[in-house]
């Protein structure tokens, strides 16, 4: 029996599974706070607050009392049946108190607290001994590289202040000496130990900081004493720290406001919202079908509101909501549920961007609102989106809806209802961003379609493998891009696509980095049009940038045959003017629109994003009008996004062609629950996992793998080729570009165009943002950009350089410091660079601190434990790849450790040498537990030396999810 939950034991009762479940966790771990409702005069655990204030019972009580139901939570009183654990800062039911004390989280926190107590006690002067520099320790602050190379000194004094006291100095040492780890610090004492320090006497210890490499370094000075009068041993410790880098950069970039996690409070409900004025462009299209609302079911919301971790919520969703088997009949239900799970998290994450007490600036009929982070799509705001504002001090629950009419670099223009009067420049407003549900509703409409053809969704061997690969001989003489004629895999892909019988299973062009998959798709489209006069094609991509690339390469068709369909939310300023002739611009609204359906039917090729393809169905294009649906970069689309064109526009004769690389990044999924439920698995990846799409068995019938890489130097390609592509990729790039940095004077190995610069940096955060930045790495990135720009042998522009980093805060700091050096260098996340290439790529990995070691293990260091993110990052470079990072942290991951071994053994390493054997085979899977154990051992050893306390298995949990750094996707 589980006493806290009162669950009786029976033969089928699985205690272990019960303890891991949602019900047990809710009963035994209420949360961090008890909140009180001033309307109902009742207290609730924090995780139940949202459910309470949205309940009919709460609304009814407020109505009876004649007060607003929009209330903020107050601190509630701790109920008599609960206790507060001050160590864990959790509220625990009394009948679960004993299990909590014996549980692993409490024991880990207790052990860590013991370590901190031992450390704090050791830092204090005691028994009459006074040591200079105080408990803050020896801080060299920031030392410029030339000074640190020669060495910088400081003096620590030790004094006995007690009359007639005799204190023996047994040992003076650095903590690093016990683990034999190289340290940039050395200590030299005036006395030889052991020695007796009598009353009034003092001696000096010289601490020398000498090191040639950038980074943050720390150690501990440990002085062991013995009071001879009572024969008692004790120790006094002083932390030692120093930074080697740029003082200027530190002054400019260090946190201006100390980091303090933002308290998350539930949004009070909006009781009355005055509708705003939408842009005319959003109402310019005449629809023949209505989009379903597809609101999230309340039963699913109740599960998702659980305070449990993602894996447990996912397990509950799987049991309660998902069909037991995924097939053509259950397909729609399965993916609608996953789409709702993702929408729930998107809505929740938008609350991060709520603003309080901000001004609005009026310009005629528009109100301008400055939105921090808008340039980085944090949040993503499009024309037609809704933003709610409420004047500070106004009636609670009363909001005005502003529709976005234009988007600038750092601001948006809003229009409100005419009743939005009395605005003064001095007024301040609270602001809420509302999720644009139109793209989600389009996907739900597609998933609800009755078209669930098994030969498309779940192709079987009988559908595809009996067919022979299309012969290439008839295609070769007519190839438009002559480079394809000499590339056997590309030629085979084009031939196979052209000769697919109507209603074939989806065909996949598997395109690893730099192999020309978009070139292949464009050629295939042109050849289909040439060989089939009645062909009609819709070509889609997950993003506007990818769709624009397809359209720009198809301009040979001219505006009579080619139409680029843009959503009305797309600003003309965001589109290359050369594509305006291929789009439809309304003469009334002067914005992108959709021409009459009769005009649309005349085009032979229509290019759009995956989601916007539903517009074609919405204006009345009949199913089966298109003979082919092409989806480029299909690995970056969720399965519901891919299904918009397939399920809404196809019939049993339509052929589907997908191109992408399942070894690179999948779609961006914000919800940890959705990721647990495999929502990150794209349609193309799911197909590629089946035997029917085996690269050898299905070659030319269901799939063609492109193998000629036209992007990278052979050494840059070598490692990902080995790890991800079975060593099948062949370097075929233009050697004038790919070899342009061989012999560069700043390479460690002049013939090897990869450089790993090891730096022991410092993780920092500021204000309420949980995103990390690392100033030593920012300095090194700037240094390398300067060296590249100053080089006289290889002339490159800002556009030839890209900087990739997983943390939004770090990207902002890099952009800030590059403004005066190279303002045009693109700095962004791995997701922002997928599908792109640069002559030089600099990767800054950011994470350094061992104190965040469990966070690193759980949250994958940005891209450390995600092989696809690693693959994309290291395959963007054409001629030179520079990585700046902390090898001690990166080596936690086997893939990164293998890569670091590869670079070290090729002679491409700068900075402190690896602390591990680079010739030792790297095990598969998991993290390097030895590194974790080494950290714990250091803490254990210190606690044992400084006190009688023992530390065991110290791990400290930090934030829940790294959503601050997860970019928002643009899908319309």
From TrEMBL:
Domain DNA2/NAM7 helicase helicase: 487-576, 599-671
Main localisation: cytoplasm
EC class name: hydrolase
Signal peptide: none
EC number: 3.6.4.13
DNA2/NAM7 helicase-like C-terminal domain ranges (all copies): 680-887
Family: Belongs to the DNA2/NAM7 helicase family. SDE3 subfamily.
Protein known as: RNA helicase
């Amino acid at each position: 029996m589980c006493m806290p939950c009162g669950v009786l034991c029976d033969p089928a009762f699985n205690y272990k599974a019960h303890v891991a479940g949602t019900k047990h966790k809710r009963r035994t771990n209420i949360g961090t706070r008890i909140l009180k409702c001033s309307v109902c005069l009742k207290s609730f655990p924090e995780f139940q607050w949202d459910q309470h204030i949205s309940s009919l019972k709460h609304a009814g009580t407020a109505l009876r009392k004649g007060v607003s139901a929009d209330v903020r939570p107050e601190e509630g009183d701790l109920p008599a049946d609960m206790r507060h654990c001050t160590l864990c800062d959790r509220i625990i039911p009394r009948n679960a108190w004993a299990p909590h004390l014996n549980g692993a989280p409490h024991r880990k926190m207790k052990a860590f607290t013991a370590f901190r107590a031992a450390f704090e006690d050791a830092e204090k002067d005691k028994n009459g001994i006074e040591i200079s520099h105080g408990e803050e320790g020896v801080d060299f602050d920031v030392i410029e590289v030339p000074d640190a190379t020669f060495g910088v000194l400081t003096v620590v004094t030790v004094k006995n202040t007690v009359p007639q006291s005799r204190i023996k100095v047994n040992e003076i040492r650095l903590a690093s000496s016990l683990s034999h780890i190289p340290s940039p610090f050395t200590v030299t004492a005036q006395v030889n130990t052991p020695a007796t320090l009598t009353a009034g006497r003092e001696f000096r210890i010289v601490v020398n900081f000498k090191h040639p490499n950038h980074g943050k370094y720390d150690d501990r000075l440990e002085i062991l004493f013995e009071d001879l009068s009572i024969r008692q041993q004790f120790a006094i410790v002083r932390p030692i720290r120093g930074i080697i880098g740029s003082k200027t950069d530190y002054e400019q970039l260090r946190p201006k406001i100390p980091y303090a996690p933002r308290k998350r409070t539930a949004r009070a409900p909006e009781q009355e919202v005055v509708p705003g004025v939408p842009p005319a462009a959003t109402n310019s299209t005449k629809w023949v079908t209505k989009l379903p609302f597809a609101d999230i079911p309340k039963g699913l919301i109740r599960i998702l509101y659980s305070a449990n971790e993602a894996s447990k919520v996912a397990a509950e969703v799987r049991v309660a909501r998902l069909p037991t088997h995924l097939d053509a009949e259950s397909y729609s239900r399965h993916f609608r549920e996953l789409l709702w799970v993702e929408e729930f998290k998107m809505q929740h994450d938008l609350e991060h961007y709520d603003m309080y007490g901000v001004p609005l600036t009026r310009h005629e009929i528009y109100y301008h609102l400055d939105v921090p982070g808008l340039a980085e799509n944090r949040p993503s705001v499009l024309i037609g989106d809704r933003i709610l504002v409420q004047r500070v001090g106004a009636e609670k629950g009363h909001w005005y809806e502003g529709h976005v009419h234009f988007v600038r670099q750092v601001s948006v223009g809003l229009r409100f209802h005419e009743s939005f009067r009395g605005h003064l420049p001095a007024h301040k407003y609270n602001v809420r961003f509302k999720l644009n549900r139109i793209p989600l509703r389009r996907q739900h409409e597609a998933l609800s379609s009755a078209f669930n053809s098994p030969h498309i969704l779940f192709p079987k061997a009988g559908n595809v493998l009996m067919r022979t690969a299309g012969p290439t001989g008839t295609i070769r003489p007519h190839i438009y891009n002559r480079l394809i004629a000499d590339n056997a895999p590309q030629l085979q892909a084009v031939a196979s696509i052209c000769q697919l019988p109507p209603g074939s299973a989806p065909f996949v062009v598997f395109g690893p980095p730099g192999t020309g998959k978009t070139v292949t798709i464009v050629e295939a489209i042109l050849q289909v049009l040439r060989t089939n006069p009645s062909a009609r094609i819709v070509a889609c991509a997950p993003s506007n940038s990818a769709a624009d690339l397809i359209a720009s390469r198809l301009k040979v068709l001219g505006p009579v045959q080619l139409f680029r369909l843009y959503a009305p939310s797309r600003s003309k300023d965001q589109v290359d003017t050369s594509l305006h002739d291929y789009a439809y611009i309304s003469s009334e609204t002067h914005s992108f629109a959709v021409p009459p359906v009769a005009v649309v039917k005349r085009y032979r090729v229509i290019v759009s994003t995956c989601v916007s393809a539903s517009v074609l169905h919405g204006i009345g294009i009949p199913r089966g009008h298109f003979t082919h649906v092409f989806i480029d970069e299909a690995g970056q689309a969720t399965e519901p996004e891919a299904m918009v064109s397939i399920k809404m526009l196809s019939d049993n004769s339509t052929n589907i062609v997908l191109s992408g690389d399942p070894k690179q990044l999948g779609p961006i999924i914000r919800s940890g629950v959705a990721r647990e439920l495999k929502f990150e698995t794209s349609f193309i990846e799911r197909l590629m996992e089946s035997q029917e799409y085996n690269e050898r068995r299905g070659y030319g019938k269901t799939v063609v793998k492109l193998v000629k890489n036209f992007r990278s130097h052979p050494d840059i390609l070598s490692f990902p080729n080995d790890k991800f592509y079975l060593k099948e990729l062949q370097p075929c790039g233009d050697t004038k570009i790919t070899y342009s940095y061989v012999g560069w004077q700043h390479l460690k190995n002049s013939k090897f165009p990869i450089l790993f610069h090891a730096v022991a940096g410092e993780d920092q955060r500021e204000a309420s943002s949980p995103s990390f930045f690392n100033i030593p790495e920012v300095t090194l990135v700037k240094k390398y950009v300067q060296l590249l720009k100053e080089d006289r042998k290889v002339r490159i522009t800002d556009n030839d350089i890209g900087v990739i980093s997983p943390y939004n805060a770090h990207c902002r700091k890099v952009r800030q410091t590059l403004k005066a050096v190279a303002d045009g260098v693109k700095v962004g996340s791995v997701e922002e660079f997928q599908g792109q290439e640069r002559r030089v790529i600099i990767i800054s990995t950011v994470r350094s601190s061992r104190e965040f070691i469990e966070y690193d293990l759980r949250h994958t260091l940005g891209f450390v434990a995600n092989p696809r993110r690693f693959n994309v990052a290291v395959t963007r470079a054409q001629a030179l790849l520079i990585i700046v990072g902390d090898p001690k942290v990166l080596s936690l991951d086997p893939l990164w450790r293998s890569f670091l071994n590869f670079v070290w053994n090729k002679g491409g390493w700068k900075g402190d040498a690896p602390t591990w054997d680079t010739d030792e085979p790297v095990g598969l899977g998991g993290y390097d537990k030895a590194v974790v154990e080494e950290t714990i051992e250091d803490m254990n050893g210190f606690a044992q030396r400084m006190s009688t306390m023992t530390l065991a298995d110290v791990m400290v949990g930090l934030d829940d999810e790294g959503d601050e750094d997860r970019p928002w996707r643009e899908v319309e």
